[in-house]
Amino acid sequence: MNKIAQLMKNIAGLQRIQIRLINLEKLHWKTPEVRAAAVLVRNTFNTFEQKWRDGMGENKFFVFCIPSYPVYDGPPEFLHNPLDTDEKNQDNFVDGCRNLKSGIAIRIKKMQDDRARLLSLHNQGALIQVFADFDALNEELAKIAEQEKSTVLDFNKAVQSWDHQLIASLKQNDLQTRFNAIFADSSEPLIDRIRKREESVEAMADSLASNPSEHLRKEQVAMTQNYNFGDNTTVGGINNGSNNQMNVNMNIVQRDHKELKDALQQLLEQINSEIIEKETKENAVNAVITVSTELEKEEKDQEGWKVVESLEKLGKIADASVKLQPLVSKIVELIGQQVSNFPPINLG
User: Fold this and answer.
1) Most buried of 69, 78, 124, 176, CB within 10 angstroms?
2) pTM across the whole model
3) CA–CA dist 110, 205 (Å, integer)
4) What gap in Å lies between CA 274 and CA 282, rounded to an integer?
């Protein structure tokens, strides 16, 4: 994952802790709610770089509720002195809670500053506000997830309101034609609905951080887009102002999947020649780019769900084209043969 997008993911994790810590110090240190919060804190910090963990290990919440190893693993035991009184343990717990909340607020600010600095270094200062909006959206999702006493109706209203906020943010930042913000999931459990939205915001951030030059106003008559995958691999797309033409030059690093690379190239060329709406064509090109981006990553870093989602999107676009259908099917077949770590792909 791009460093900029990773910082946003870290911020979202800290926001979830912040919400969970609200009024936690009012509880007894042995309650299940405190244990659950300790697990959340440990698991969140376990994924961070060492520099984001440094300085937190002396916090009484960590010492008290989490094993004090270099990486916070192991069971969420409460490491207290058995000779201490219950009152002493409670005081240590409350003190740790308050200091942890203060420390997290400082780290969130430092992460946001680091992210803004990286964006500025890449001449993408205009995206600073976009990522700030994503932070706010993730924080709102964390609040919705913690509303355990709310009714189903309240949950539905909260999620619907969040969807409107996302759409408004995309429009405000001229991203409404780049990302689909529609979720048809009202019948799914709340936890799945929230996770889907968290993953969507994360994917948007990763896409923006990886392909920042796509962030251009759509009303421009002509524009050039360059997608740098971070490994000297570049896909360039040129929109010449026509609704039905997008010239694409694809130069994928040829590792172990030459046949797959050739199939992706052929698919891009066919998309280019198809007479379809500009937005549909751009969505198709972006889907191919996502597939090639993930395949060029080391296997441990690949996010298979992005490939599956993109190919299923391509499958729907290809339904209206007798020429695109066999190409998409061939790519799905090749991935099934050559890549073992992706979930099943269903083209319908």
Assistant:
1) 124
2) 0.58
3) 18
4) 12
